[in-house]
């Protein structure tokens, strides 16, 4: 093979994939007898695979990423123009698109001030963990170093991010992990019966107070940060109960704990506000983001902090170790911010936040209506165009539908030209939530097509 592939020589491309590509999150045995799926083209919400099969993509590139849809020539043009002018300069220097995008982003995030560029969600989270650790050393004699994370939340695939990860199946066999990451309970009201002492009323306040108990157990003087997803994604599309976030902020203020919100999935429009936390009227100290920042047109992630966090790293001539001694090679790649600028302009130009709220409400209603027909749908929940349907064997006991059956429902939809997702390989026995996150441009017709496929699949599989 000399690399001169003819794009039309599909069997050769499939063979090369089968022989050499190590797919993410995949068991490869099935590829011995069936072809790996290769997506070749996309336009709007639709994609075509290597055999020309058309599908509507209800999960924005499989992993909640392509917020503005496929085939955006204006992003491709912006990236091309920038790459020809200057593709990269790393290290300590800035770039024109980096400056412009930072100003646009901060404008959408009142109270925030500084943008640190990197290239994946895991990496942005790692930067935050490093900042917390360094602040602990600089200001608290190394003591205030612990980072709290929640059961069912996911923050990435690196060893540090996994230490901060509440999804056991992702972590098993990859330890040992670094010390100082402490697990706290989730806030999934639908499953509160599994949490000892959970009350009938005011569950949100109770769930936040459970975290406070752990802070007190560990000693607040040892806890540096709390790292949470605004709406938990792969852990089950968990929307926070009433009062939860407000109480979390109070707790962080009371014990001088930094609130790090992981907006890798929710960020840049997915839930109908620029950022998921903005639904709850709270101010974070650090925000990580990745997927929707450039809708997958370039690899870019950011860690955004307040000026107060930045100030803690201000120059101190008496201490040469004082600044944030961190780098990200591809944080210097200009394609990322160039794509992110145009991505944000599209969301504004096409009123996609408003569309996300409207279409999100419509999709929530349509999926909820399926509950009358299918007892297996225990709960439909979500925010904006970030929705989940939790499947159970029995609504009274809430016993999760077996993963194999959930997989069969996803496969049936896919066979019928609708790509949906499911929580998978995260929580053994509880990977039972179907996930929906179509691009923010979707219409009622698109949603009807997706919901019809789910309706059909539930009927056929169950
Ligand atoms: N944080 C959340 C909430 C995620 O869902 C993910 C990935 O799905 C990550 C972090 C990690 O992002 P990446 O895969 O870009 O490292």
From TrEMBL:
For activity, the cofactor(s) needed are:
pyridoxal 5'-phosphate
Looking at the keywords, is Signal present?
no
Family named by the database record:
Belongs to the class-III pyridoxal-phosphate-dependent aminotransferase family.
Molecular function terms, GO-annotated = pyridoxal phosphate binding; taurine-pyruvate aminotransferase activity
User: What is the species of this protein?
Assistant: Sulfitobacter undariae
Keyword terms, alphabetized: Aminotransferase, Pyridoxal phosphate, Pyruvate, Transferase
Instruction: Quote the protein name from its UniProt record.
Output: Taurine-pyruvate aminotransferase
Query: InterPro entries in the record, alphabetically?
Result: Aminotrans_3, Aminotrans_3_PPA_site, PyrdxlP-dep_Trfase, PyrdxlP-dep_Trfase_major, PyrdxlP-dep_Trfase_small
Superkingdom is Bacteria
The EC number(s) this enzyme carries: 2.6.1.77
